[in-house]
Amino acid sequence: MSRRRRTLGGDPDLDLFGYADAVRPAVSEPSTERAAAAAGDEEGKPRARSRRGGARESNALVAHVAEPGAGVAFEEGIPGASPASAVSVATLTHTAKDVLEGAFVPLWVRGEVSDFKAHRNGHWYFSLRDGAAQVRCVVWSRDRRRIPAPPDDGMEVAALGQVTVYPGRGELQFSVQAMEAQGDGLWRKALEATLAALHADGLLEPARKRLLPRFPRRVAVVTSPDGAALHDIVAVARRRFAAVEIVVVPARVQGDGAPEALCAAFERIARWGDVDVVIVGRGGGAREDLWAFNDLRVARAIAGCHAPTVSAVGHEVDITIADLVADVRAPTPSAAAEAAVPVRDELAAQVRALGLALGAATRRLLAERRDALLLATRDARTAATRHTERRRARVEQVAGRLDALSPLATLARGYAAARGAEGETLASVRDFSPGMDFALLLRDGTVGATARTVERGAVRRAPHSPRKINDASNDQ
Amino acid sequence: MTFEESLARLEEIVSELDGDGLDLDAALALFEEGVERLRAASAELARAEAQVKLLVEKSDGTLDLADFGG
Q: Does domain A201-340 have CATH number 3.40.50.261?
């Protein structure tokens, strides 16, 4: 009996996302598993199907039991053919397991999830059922990463798996490696759980968004070193500003280990530190290919980055959680480079404009000061002139009064004053002696004179000369 | 001082010069500083073309930049 011919094919209508193609090679490749057959005897694990290779004896048993008409079924010594040659339960269940596993390739099965239980050893257990039947299912912990979130009881799902037997219980078991819920339920559930966790951490707050530097010296790019995304980013960055250094921080962006690799890349950036902005992303792909960018750990790594981040995952329509936590979401890798790297000429124009503004502001300030200085000088001059004129007027006034009081004015009226040799005024007859020379001061000059006689006695006096009045009164 | 800081300081200086109540000595000092910042920023823009590098982790756990061949 040919296993190929008897197997049931996967329902192509159910294979919405190409899981069968993705998974089948890994599951239906017997050679390496066969090599490990002797070692692995852990009941129920997929690896156990490799026992098929080491169980030729029990396959022979099946052939004989299954085809009694061949005429050899009751031969003495054939296992299970008689009470004497009865086989063990283990042989039975292992044989059944081998037969089942040989008869089925992995296939998609549709049903409702019930009795879901996540065991603390990391495996998931549940049943798939419809109106008439049910089958026990298991998702081994190592297969869980292919499934975005654990299904809920009552969920309608299509599960891709391998039919096997769990010898420990003699139960039919469906070992699930991929699962799709109706209406993308699992993806939605996973996204919602991640969003809720990020929201609780406050990592989705719009206020967290940082501005990108206008001029980054160094841009780190977290992506696959072989991807088209990197090529686009480098090309755009060079075109805009070739002096901006691009540092590639390589990370696997899809498949097993991608979230860990992305986190490790951010960890290296944190340790290295010397970067002004970080672009994280990849080119377009199927939803599963972008899934690492919905990982909670990756989201936290992006949010925790010391430098501002730009996300660029897939095409414009693809929005991932990485896009929500990054400071800037770019629709494509090229757009991320445009967001992170300025155009050199634009920046140069900005610097030039600032230089002009600096000159203009300073010139304006100096002009203002000069005008103020000119104004102040004029005011000072005006004030000084006015002051001088006021003083001159006062001087003239005083001079006029002085003139009015001057003894010279008395002389001008026809009086004379006598002065001695030393210039002293000779105001009394006692200042004179007969024969003494003296000078007579007149309005228009001096006359040398000699006293002939000196006589005391009353004379007619000028009434306004106090000296003479005093002298006269003293004399009297 | 980075290009970013130079530019930010320059903007600050211009707006300070645009304001009132600045004495002349302070204004001239600001202008001089502005010119210095302008020179620094322009020098940044004139830098030579940079290489694309790869961040590599060495066996001792330190990080280094290598030329990126891709």
A: yes
